[in-house]
Amino acid sequence: MIGYVTLGTNDLQRAAAFYDALLAEIGARRLMDYGRGYAYGESMDKPTLAIVIPYDTKPATVGNGVMVALGVGSRATVDRMYKKALELGGADEGAPGLREEDFYACYFRDLDGNKLSVFCMG
Asked: For the whole model, what pTM was predicted?
């Protein structure tokens, strides 16, 4: 159902360096260059994550209650993504751990303050 998610940034090159390194951990790469941003994913026929400088030219802001969750295949990948996000300057919002019976997740913010989660089931 989800085609893509877009996150705003006020510093495209800084955000791109963060997401280039972070998303490489799960095999995602830049698929599109909009000039004002980039779309990341595995292929264009699967959901993508985009970072952009807002088209209205106003500063990008963080939506209260907005979060992007990236599904991965293992707890080890959740752990690796969390570690990488913090190494890249992301902020901790919840270390990896079991949240529900079969829901293992971590939470962090990117360099612009956008909240992300990486999770796996099982």
From this structure: 0.93
